[in-house]
Amino acid sequence: MYPKDYSEFPGKNEAFFPDFLLKEWMVAVVFLVGFMTLVMAEEPPLGEIADPTNTSFLPVPDWYFLFLYQLLKYKWASGPFVVIGTVILPGIAFTALMLAPWLDRSKERRPLRRPVTTGIMILSLISVAALTWAAEVEHETQMESNPGEKPQNTKVMAQDDEGYSIYQQNACIRCHGDQLQGVNGPSLLGVGNRLSHEKITEIIDDGRGAMPAGMFQGNEQQKKVLVDWLMKQKQK
């Protein structure tokens, strides 16, 4: 059985060329002009000059990957569960996107009449926007902090200690600085006054804020030495 000819639907059809194609071109031109206006009106933000000797630099992905970057900071999507944040959730999202035409085959054009497709789209947009916003807020907070400020009467233990060696080997130094002053992460100066032994261990294991879980690569004995060393970083 052949589909009906368009001529049987008066007033509900139009010629592809030039009517429909002209409308598409007009919309494309308006979007392109608006986009180029924004590009020329706003200078792109540039970071610091690349410095290969700066071991404290913590790279951040481009904005369109920030939502995945933020996702990996949560305990249920990082560390031993990292496969959830890297494979399972993105896989479900992309699979749903590919199957959307088959999940909802309604001929309705009104969003409220297509709950499956509309629901997937709204959920996706909200999730991506919220995760991107959270990652950007954390990044801006770190950039606006003053990592070079050293609290008064703060004692920094000698760098030849075993604890400092473990601190350095596990890349803690990249975020917290060689003097615990904080670079891309919070300052650890005086951390022994603020946190207990158990709390520091918990943060190392589970992460907190921009620090993901599973960053520490040493054994339990090395972790204990590191925590004991951090506990000695106290203000007089």
Automatic annotation (TrEMBL):
Q: What is this protein called?
A: C-type cytochrome
**Ranges of residues in domain Cytochrome c:** 158-234
Q: What is the lineage of its organism?
A: Bacteria, Bacillati, Bacillota, Bacilli, Bacillales
**GO-annotated molecular function:** electron transfer activity; heme binding; metal ion binding; oxidoreductase activity
- The UniProt transmembrane annotation reads 20-41, 81-103, 115-135
What region holds the Cytochrome b/b6 C-terminal region profile domain? 6-133
Membrane topology is: Multi-pass membrane protein
- Annotated GO CC locations: membrane
* Keywords noted in UniProt: Electron transport, Heme, Iron, Membrane, Metal-binding, Transmembrane, Transmembrane helix, Transport
Record-linked InterPro entries = Cyt_b/b6_C, Cyt_b/b6_C_sf, Cyt_c-like_dom, Cyt_c-like_dom_sf, Cytb/b6-like_sf, Cytochrome_c550/c551-like
Q: Where in the cell is it found?
A: Membrane
